[in-house]
Amino acid sequence: MLSSVFVDRPRLAIVIAIVTTIAGALALVSIPIAQYPDIVPPQVSVTAVYPGASGAVVAATVAQPIEAQVVGVDKMMYMKSISGDDGSYSLIVSFELGTNPDINAVNVNNRVQVALSSLPPEVQRQGVTVKKKSSALLGVIAVYSPKHSHDQLFLSNYVTINLLDQIKSTPGVGDAALWGPQDYSMRVWVRTDRLTGLNLTTADIINAIQSQNIQAAVGRIGARPAANDQQLQLNIQTKGRLSSVPEFENIVIRTNPDGSVLRLRDLARVDLGAANLDRETRLNGGPAAAIAIYQTPGANAITTLNAVRGRIEELQKNFPEDLTWKITYDPTVFVKDTIHEVQKTLIEAFILVVIVVFLFLGSVRATLIPTLAVPVSLIGTFIVLLAVGYSANSVSLLAIVLSIGIVVDDAIVVVENVERVMEEHPELTPAEATKRAMSEITAPIIAITLVLLSVFVPVAFIPGISGELFRQFAVTVAVSMFLSAINALTLSPALCGVLLRPHHGPRRGIMGRVMGSIDYVRDRYGSIVARLVRISVIGLVLVAISGVGVVALSKITPTGFLPEDDQGALFVVAQMPGGASIARTTDIMEQGEAILREEKAVEDVTSVIGLNFIDNYSRSFRLHHRQSLVLGAAEASHIFFRILAAATQKTWPRHCAGSSLPQTRTRG
Description:
Blueprint: H1 2-8, H2 10-30, E1 43-49, H3 55-70, E2 76-84, E3 88-95, H4 101-115, H5 121-126, E4 129-133, E5 137-144, H6 152-168, E6 173-179, E7 184-190, H7 192-197, H8 202-212, E8 219-221, E9 234-236, H9 245-249, E10 252-255, E11 261-263, E12 268-274, E13 280-283, E14 286-295, H10 301-315, E15 324-329, H11 332-361, H12 364-387, H13 394-424, H14 430-456, H15 464-489, H16 491-499, H17 509-534, H18 536-556, E16 569-575, H19 582-597, E17 602-609, E18 621-623, E19 626-631, E20 636-643, H20 646-649, H21 652-655, H22 660-667
Parallel strand pairs: 2-19
Antiparallel strand pairs: 1-3, 1-4, 2-3, 5-14, 5-15, 6-14, 7-12, 8-9, 10-11, 13-14, 13-17, 16-20, 17-20, 18-19
Helix pairs in contact: 1-2, 1-14, 1-16, 2-12, 2-16, 3-4, 6-10, 11-12, 11-13, 12-13, 12-15, 12-16, 13-14, 13-15, 14-15, 14-16, 19-22
């Protein structure tokens, strides 16, 4: 019998348990930490720009050729496209859970390359970008000027040049992007009346700028074919692309017959400004640059954001005067609190189990056996969780808490049966009593484990996003039960043979009273069951009533995909009528900021004008498998704000969300 081997060689069972515990502890340190399992389908984004085109034109000339090729790509579930009046085009393709994001990106890129020749030349020159998209928002960092000495254009470009690439290269960061970027650009404001008087068009100006703002390959001096006595060879380099306002102002538009020269400054005003003024980012009413950081699938959210924080603190040493930063949205705080509460519950549950086991077994030695066996099963579970790519989240940790009450049963069954055999056969040594007891309960332990596995294992095969949540729960419980059964057949018998001692006479004192009370309750329960067996109708009626009650309560109990949790931040979308200007949108956002800053619970208010964070844009209509949107950039904006401390979070939804938002809606 298997158990006899470990009873005779207890060191072997102890070594196996120690190795399992060490491996589980290493897995526990390395496993990613998250609030919930990774249930978001992998996504691939396709972006393009058609300068000067309306949303309808972009949808007809860019969206249709690309989507006609991308639709039906392997493992695709659905896709959503957005065509903006600013000439932008964005396509998000969502794939089945569990697919490889890199392979998905390659498959989509192959389809896009087929459609590339059908796109307008202007779009081809701008380029079509295909990349993996992470929808797990890890945090938002705001770079701002406390004294407002730097405008948003400076802040946006400083972040783009000095911070953005550093953040993207941080391990665990899938992507980092600016909300409302404003890159430096040379802006040419043409005077149309002068163009008309000089019989010119904007195409003439564009051609002049393109022909003179180039990096020309002039050639070399002294290169072959040259005389053999040539001693030097020089590469000729011209000034190259223009970089300042005066250089652009001196661009020659045309030369007149009288020898005079018409330059760009004669027809237009040239200045250095933002390439796109349709978006604006604000922090607490002042200009800011907001960096949205997205997490790589499977990365540790807490470790990744800490690494980002450390990298920015290092870069902060080179910040110019009156420039600082802060994290305005940090979901890892809630994750830490959630994990801490679950860990506290785990410890409390373990302590309660130990106390209950001690009260029922009445022996410190007997209690020590399940106390040592249970942690081995629980810690060893993380080996499998890490191996299959799961994370330590609220679902898996709650499954661990539930498993404590399940895995302790196997150890209790072993200890209780060994003590029974020792009481009935006092002539046997602890090792002999353990072998005899294990010969009686080995088959029941295996049978109980198989029955419990038959309950939880099928749950792991539920398809879809909700199935992913149940799968991690089922795998955690199933693995812990399997390891518990292994310990019940190896470690627990070995410890019984080493630790247990025969009892001499009845127990006295407090433990005697406790054991007497337990025996009394057991006897009364047995007598009640014996009477109910004679009147089986009563038992059937009680079961029927319980079943009806469960069905009735399940119908009136509120349902939901995930429990509602207050993470200390609220996102609000301000939807404007079609064609609303930036100035009009800005006025509404300023009203909302003023209302929110009056709330004592609000710590920071970040607003982005011209961007709807929740779905990138707002109004939409569905067309079969894809969702297409055509609207202006200023029609939607979003604002999000966070509260001061965790203690305030419990009153926040009732106090702020119930009072501030109606005020904002009334004023807008």
